[in-house]
Give the backbone structure.
Amino acid sequence: MISKGKVEMHISFNVPPYTGEEEKYIKEVLKNHMICGDGQFTKKCNEWMERKFDAKKVMLTTSGTSALDMAVMLCDLRKGEEVILPSYTFSSTANAIILNGGTPVFIDVRPDTMNIDEAGIEAAVSERTKAIIVVHYAGVACEMDTVMDIASRHGLKVIEDAAQAIMSKYKGKYLGTIGDIGCFSFHETKNLSMGEGGAIVINNEEYIDRAEILREKGTDRSRFYRGQVDKYTWVDKGDSFLPSELNAAYLYPQLLKAEDMTAHRIECWYGYYRGLKHLSDEGKIELPVIPEGCVQNGHMFYIKLKGIKERTELISYLNKNDIGSVFHYIPLHSAPAGIKYGRFNGEDIYTTKEAERLLRLPMHCELSTEDVGRVCEAINRFFETER
């Protein structure tokens, strides 16, 4: 695309995070001939997050998905027991329930944040309910006071799917540290990345020992390495949830620069907000909402259009202008596996309707203020010339 006499570069929807220090740490791992899990960089990452988030125990995992798998395993679901969750989330959230013999009970979302509608949780609780999984969509906190109150009164566990929410807060507390268990993702699309990876955050101390065992294929090898037993053996079910030390070395320098990387994304987020607010004021689009008491991490900036037709037209228009943009989840309760394995409780008032309107704009570590301005200009032109 030609503009002002020069070629404008394509603005990608996502570019994986990179600080420039990753190669140095990876070379150190290779030099030490220690590339399997739980080496020095895995420990450094765990310890950094425990200090930063004031968490009781953090352990890197192979993915955010495997962190969710571990979290649900720790809840000891029996066949037929239920877990309440929003329908507007990635399949991993529901798969963790199904793989552990449970039934996902989907409920509606709030239209302002796309988070679970806390007002609909209690109506979904039955004698079979074991836990609630909340998903902090776009790094914006769910209404956790209400969720925790419901869980306490009904004796339910709370798992925070904080895959998009590292560095975000709710009333001063980091997301992932409020429920019994939290789960982060370090996939290449997240604010901080190790390519494929995640972390489980244990906030309920009664789960710490067992979490170590589940993560180590059901053995007590972690206790052996600490000298607490003279040999290790198979003591429980488990799986291989340890990421490679190479992945941990890639993540560690990003954790050290997490504040700056988050600040950059938030700056871009507000650049979009300022550049598109007049379209919202005119009723042409809707912008994200950050509730009082929530501190977000700039993970995602989305707009909502009139409907799926207008969204499809804008995606095509931006693509022609060398700008990447994408929609997001297909609600799980309407997917083939959701129909087969789960059920929707209550009425789908907002989930499907809002999902079909939502469009995500470019957001990544290499996005510049000029890029943000160019995206805003293109969206403005769309509404001036195409509508």
Notes: The mean pLDDT is 95. Residues 99 and 250 are 30 Å apart (CA to CA). The two ends are 22 Å apart (CA to CA). The chain is about 40% helix and 15% strand.
